[in-house]
Design brief:
The complex is a heterodimer. Chain A is of the alpha/beta class. Chain A has two domains: 153 residues, P-loop containing nucleotide triphosphate hydrolases (Rossmann fold); 65 residues, no CATH class. In chain A, a hairpin with a 2-residue loop joins strand 9 and strand 10. Chain B has a four-stranded antiparallel sheet with strand order 2-3-1-4. Chain B is elongated. The two termini of chain B are 17 Å apart. The N terminus of chain B is likely disordered. The chains are: A alpha/beta, B alpha+beta. At the A-B interface, helix 2 and helix 3 of A face helix 1 and helix 7 of B. Chain A: It is a peripheral membrane protein.
Chain lengths: 228, 305
Amino acid sequence: MIEMKGVQKTYRNGVTALQGIDINIEQGEFVYVVGPSGAGKSTFIKLMYREEKPTQGSVLINGHDISEVKEKLIPQLRRGIGVVFQDFKLLPSLTVYENIAFALEVIEDSPKKIRRKVMDVLDLVQLKNKARFKPDELSGGEQQRVSIARAIVNNPKVMIADEPTGNLDPETSWQIMKIFEEVNARGTTVVMATHSKDIVNTLKKRVIAIEYGRVVRDEQRGDYGYEA
Amino acid sequence: MNSEVTTVMKLRTIKRHLREGSKNILRNGWMTFASVGSVTTTLILVGVFLVLMLNLNQIAENVEEDVQIKVLIEMGTEQKEIDQLENKIKSIQDVSFLQFSSKENELERLMASMGDDGEMWKMVNQDNPLNDVFVVKTEDPLDTMDVASRIKSFDYVDSVDYGDEVIQKLFTFNEYSRYVGLALIAALVLTAAFLISNTIKITIMARRKEIGIMKLVGATNGFIRWPFFIEGLLMGILGAILPIIIVVTGYYYLYENMKDRPLIPFIELLPFNPFVWQVSLILLGIGAFIGIWGSVMSVRKFLKV
């Protein structure tokens, strides 16, 4: 499903964020990416939705090398991947409904279909009653649920999340994780970079640990392994 | 030219862009106001200037059109010879108008033009001192001098009269004023375009984050650009409304006033209809163009995310 072969990423300023990365993530897996700040987690995540290109090696999704994808096909690539960020990245001038619908307007779905899909996904994240609200009228947890809804409304094969609970209190974080598990249960591969020891140690999944730009540990049902 | 995944846009997507573009006008309230305001300010200037320029141009043309050559025929020239001369003048390519006027005719006109004072000329009626005359006009008034000097060399021509020096100066002045006017309008429009695209750039700068997010969700450049295009167009049109109202009402009062009591006889303003509507259309066009240009150019910068 997601495969990295001999990946190295050196930024233009000379900093090598990742090197010698060889990993393979199967369809339907749930993977935590852990490690200290600045270890390369974010770069690892960014390579998967082609926000960054590897300097060496290849990133394959479903057998296609996405580092070779032409500029003009990037939008299409991104439509098959749901991405969730720590800072939500919602469009501030649009309502909750419009933010989610945007991901479907992009693929030119019919208004009828859009309405149905958005309502379904709002049901899943339990925000049906806030459809007409603007992002700044919502709490952090609610905003993150909107961004998850937007990420999964297309039914992507992969959902990628960069510290999705980083800005949320523990209780809200658990709500978010519950949604992630539901998404994963529907067959979507989930890759999530996190700093939350609690989550990783409680909801046992595969753990990939990155330090100094290298994978130092990759175990099924692993532990967080760092002091929080 | 750019990276569109789907080349053919569905109708619903066109509708979507139209809807989003117009909604953005409201969503970005103050930013829209700033952009529309700068379009309005500059278009008022352009509009007033355009009205002045076009009218001055018209006046200059009117004066030029009145330029004619008076060919004084030698006293005692026979009718046959006059006919010969007429044919010769006719054969000059640039001549567009040729009319014979007998000396009796000329005297009458002279008397008429002098009003009561003209009565005294009645005494000389028997002994008319004036010449028979050909009145000649040229296709292009600028050829007047050339044609006049050619006619002067013909037989039976006593002299030609076309107010040479004054005409020469008038033509030079008209020509220069036309160029200067055009240059000023061009400069004004360019400055306006620059100012407005800057204002719009600032308003879009505030939205560069949004553009980045749209790209993350899988929007193509075209998909992002279209609503901005519509928004720019609408801002340009909105910005043209006030200038058009000002030009139309302002010119209406000016025209109505000048019509009844002309300050100087040969100053005649361009008729209200269709002139103001033409100017309005030009203003609308400039507004739309500047709005679209400004927003599309600014968006282009941020699409390279």
